[in-house]
Amino acid sequence: MELKDLASIEKAAYFSQGELFRLGIALAFIIGILVFVNAQVGHADGSILLVVAGVVGGYMAINIGANDVANNVGPAVGSKALTLGGAIIIAAIFEAGGALIGGGDVVSTIKKGIIDPSLIQDQDTFIWLMLAALLAGAIWLNIATALGAPVSTTHSIVGAVLGAGIAAGGWDVANWGKMGAIAASWVISPLCGAFIAVGFLYFIKRSITYQADMRTAAKRIVPLLVAIMTWAFSTYLIVKGLKKIWHVEFMHAVGLGVVIAAAVYFVVKPGIAKRADALSNDKAGVNQLFTMPLIFAAALLSFAHGANDVANSVGPLAAINTAVLGGGVATKAAIPLWVMAVGAMGIAVGLALFGPKLIRTVGSEITELDQSRAFCIAMAAAITVIIASQLGLPVSSTHIAVGAVFGVGFLREFIKSNYARMLDDIKHHHHGSDEAEVEVFLAEFNSAPISTKERMLKELKEHAATVPELNKKERKVLRKAYHQELVKRSALIKIAAAWIITVPVSAILAAIIFFTVRGIMMP
User: Fold this and answer.
1) Which residues contact 221 (CB under 8 A, 6 or more apart)?
2) How many whole angstroms separate alpha carbon 385 and alpha carbon 84?
3) Buried b (16+ CB within 10 A) or exposed e, 387-407
């Protein structure tokens, strides 16, 4: 056996030990939930069922932490604004804080109103429906995480409730209009995220990184961008993150965001200017100015996510708790502290144990990110949710963030290819000239601001009017030669496929589980 084979075996064994360790910790946590829930519910009627539901809810929360939270911190980790360990600590604290502080006292049990609970009057049927939906959503998230595909936890539980609901009450129980809107969000969410992220990145390039004096440009533009980010996240938190404990009208939230943003602008502007003076006058230097905003963005996105998406794990659990205690079939249910604690702790544990895989996928395996690109992705996530909530569009934070990552990557491809064509045009127009003359022109072109570059290219073309134009076939060959793939196509296909099948797979799993449980437990 060769030495390289021994090294491969050793590496595989080390990986297996790590996986077993994580699975062991997760199993210990599930057992801990069993003991914790049992202590909370005591020996009341239905206590065994509540303990089972609590364990399944904890399993769901673990998978939300493992899959969905990556969208909040992945770009910051990929851009090296945060270390993986630092991101996990920040996200775990703020996810749990968001769930416990902003999760509210009441949660919707039928997410997005996709089934009509009035058609399911039997209390036991409703309990088994919710339990099947919770387990099916968790299983699909677990599969998606193992495959390295970031998917929407909301769509997972929506599909699961739909499938279990149809199994329990027939096709008429489903609200197909709502399902159509959710299906439309598969396209709306990533496109909105991509367009907004591309817009911000293009603005940053034009106003900062394409300028000759990047530091001076950054002193002027970065405080403005931080203020816009402050407005976006202040409004986002008021509208979404704190809506269950502090209800504010949308326009009032926007106004408060503007006031906070103005204050932040005047506070951070001197500090950014001082920091910029100590940095190098290049792209890597000015990128460092986006590090602190990215850390705050990761924390605030995690808080808002914990406040909103914890309902995906505790909503059905709260519904089961209400039904078991005699509350019947309810579209809204009170959230006992123990139920919220299960969701918050599960998300934190899932993130710490299994989150790194998806964090790396979002942060570095789709396209290469630096701090300014990651900043644009965070902006897209917050602004898209604000716009969507006002327009009543059912968007997914996962789809927004991942769409923004792909948008940034495709913009990079376009710019790189376009720049390569510019350089080729310059060399073509200088054909026959001295090589030193070409190098001087290229050096001047590379250091010039964008407006000067445009003028230099225009003058070249005017002086070379006699140069024959390329035909369509030749232009196609050149475009192919200059094309650089900066976005991993296999990741695009895998993630898109996972998004498309999330609802139907969750629905089928939930229906199978419901029929199985009903056959075993119900008369």
Assistant:
1) 204, 207, 208
2) 26
3) ebbeeebbbbbbbbbbbbbbb
Total-model pTM: 0.83
Q: Look up tokens 């699961």; give the residue.
A: 160
Residue 336: both structure tokens together: 């006992």
174 DSSP assignment: B
DSSP-assigned letter for residue 106: E
Reduce the DSSP state of residue 493 to 3 states and report it. helix
* Mean pLDDT, rounded, for 226-235: 92
Check: CB of residue 103 under 8 Å from CB of residue 306.
yes
Q: Which two tokens stand for residue 169?
A: 């009450």
User: Could you give the angle at the alpha carbon of 126 between the alpha carbons of 125 and 131, nearest 5°?
Assistant: 100
* Nearby residues of 96 by Cβ (< 8 Å), 6 or more positions away: 306, 344, 345, 347, 348
For the cut 70, the answer to whether the pLDDT of residue 97 exceeds it is yes
Phi and psi at residue 428, to the nearest 5° = -65, -45
| Residue given tokens 């990215």 in the structure block | 294
Q: Is 174 or 242 the better-scoring residue by pLDDT?
A: 174
Nearest one of 182, 303, 166, 200 to 244, comparing CA atoms: 303
Task: Answer whether 380's CB lies under 8 Å from 196's CB.
Answer: yes
pLDDT tens-digit profile of 119-141?
777 888 888 888 999 999 999 99
- Answer whether 318's CB lies under 8 Å from 339's CB: yes
As a whole number of angstroms, the distance between CA 224 and CA 272 comes to 11
Say how many residues make up the chain: 523
**Confidence class of residue 372 from pLDDT cuts 50, 70 and 90?**
very high
Strands (E), 385-442: none
For residue 245, the Cα-to-chain-centroid distance in whole angstroms is 24
Residue 201 — very low, low, confident or very high, per pLDDT cuts 50/70/90?
very high
As a three-state string, the secondary structure of 219-261 is HHHHHHHHHHHHHHHHHHHHHHHCCCCCCCCHHHHHHHHHHHH
389 pLDDT more than 80: no
Query: Cβ neighbours of residue 164 under 8 Å, at least 6 residues apart?
Result: 129, 130, 132, 133, 136, 507, 510, 511, 513, 514
Amino acid in the structure at residue 468: P
In whole angstroms, give the CA distance from residue 57 to residue 134.
Answer: 7
